[in-house]
Amino acid sequence: MTAQEGCSPIAAHHQLPPANSSNMSRVPIDRESSHQLLVRFFELLSATEQSAELVGQVLRETGKHFGFGCGFVYEADHTGTFFLSESFTGYDLPLNEPFQLEERLCAEEIKQFFEEPFFIRIRPEAAADKSSERQLFASNTYVMAPVLDVRNRLIALVGMADRRLHQHLSEDTLTSAKMVLGLVATQVKLRVLQRRLDDARQSLGGVLDNLGVDVYVNDYHTHEILYANKSMAAPYGGLKNMLGKKCWQALYTDKTGPCDFCPQPRLVDENGEPTKIYSWDYQRPFDGAWFRVLSGSFRWLDGRLAHVVSSVDITENKKNEEIIARLALYDPLTNLPNRRKLMADADRLIDEACATGGFGYMAFIDFDNFKQINDLEGHPVGDSFLVTVSRILLSVPLIAKHSYRYGGDEFVFIFSNVEKAAVIKVLRQLLGYFSEQRFYNGNAYVCTASMGLAKFPDDGLTAEKVLGVADQMMYEAKSKGKGIACFSDGEIVA
């Protein structure tokens, strides 16, 4: 089909069909496993040393996790023709055919590549549908990220697709899938730009000003700046403030010699010839912007050994990294720290107590009638109750800093160097809060809390040991009538 025969624009915010649609079946995706997947990919894609197969590996694992039949990375050459650079597929799909967008998509479809960061498409229509984008990607369901350079040119397409009509993507699945694709897209962008730099070394003078990254070149031995492109020079007062100066004189006002972190000595081999390219992340001090820096050596126009430094703005990528790092340590529903952070914090507090002669109490909470709320009112109401619990815990000054969601309706909080009398006072306060009636949809519920408390370091020298004792005492509280707190020394608070 040609662009003139029909146009079915790619919908960035397409309305999802209902979960009970006859053509759709929900693919359950475990939220915690998705978060773990994101954290692992973040670690892989953030590594300085990366294998050539890494992007393909990430795509393959992502597709398998989210139930996509194929994944792809298309990169554009200087003519605008897109070639397949990485892919995975569980069935035969025509993914190896080079194409130009103008020949395969209509103008409205192409326009959206430059206006939206992601494209989400779920088609419940019959398989006989002949829309141009469906033919191009041989799919009915896809999530795709366009990769634009700093001049807003489309240089790559990263996506996952499926030919099935029954795929249903939840909002959580879409969010996780888009985060992974965003990381991959950033990696592809950096890779494309670095490759262009390598290809342009023979005609450096004509290329550097049009590369779309910040670049400067200095003499390898004297450190005198020989060249800087416009985007590199602009934040430092222009070329007049850079050319002829030593690099540290132009870039830093407080340095009197080469930077400690400079990789320049490692850029040549034992014969003094150019060797590896090094990469690191750098935050510019005067505006806080982050850059991925690539550093290499080469022969300058006059034959002297030179050092080239190029950088790409990755400020937005750093923000995504912070989001992913938070997902690894915090519960997305309650915003409380999760089990992983609990174990790390508890081990630290126990070590401090052992070193200073201090002490603390760890409390394990399980709610007695929570299942009834979920079963009768539904999980959204149950989630609302859990959020209420988190707010109550955070409102108590003595435990606000160390309150955690352990999982399900189980919570943990820690008293550090707080006398037992004050601990008991807080427990009675909390037991009172949780014994109050709460109304959902006109129905009254009482969801009391059973608590178990262990003392450290008396009950254990590790978080795992102390938590085990607290858990045991929580079950002791349930066996004694529920809605009470039991200490490991036998004392009961009601």
- Global structural class: alpha+beta
Taken together, the total number of domains comes to: 3
The percent range for helix content is 25-40%
CATH topology of the largest domain: Beta-Lactamase
Q: What is the secondary structure topology, with strand pairs?
A:
Blueprint: E1 25-26, H1 31-46, H2 54-66, E2 70-76, E3 82-89, H3 101-104, H4 107-113, E4 119-122, H5 132-137, E5 141-148, E6 154-162, E7 167-168, H6 171-199, H7 204-207, E8 214-219, E9 225-228, H8 230-233, H9 247-251, E10 278-283, E11 290-299, E12 305-313, H10 315-329, H11 339-356, E13 360-367, H12 370-377, H13 379-394, H14 397-400, E14 403-407, E15 410-416, H15 420-434, E16 437-440, E17 443-446, E18 449-456, H16 463-479, E19 485-487, E20 492-493
Parallel strand pairs: 1-7, 18-19
Antiparallel strand pairs: 2-3, 2-6, 4-5, 5-6, 8-9, 8-12, 10-11, 11-12, 13-15, 13-18, 14-15, 16-17, 19-20
Helix pairs in contact: 1-2, 1-6, 1-10, 2-6, 12-13
State the main characteristics:
494 residues; alpha+beta; Beta-Lactamase; Alpha-Beta Plaits; six-stranded mixed beta sheet; five-stranded antiparallel beta sheet; 16 helices; 37% helix; globular; disordered N terminus
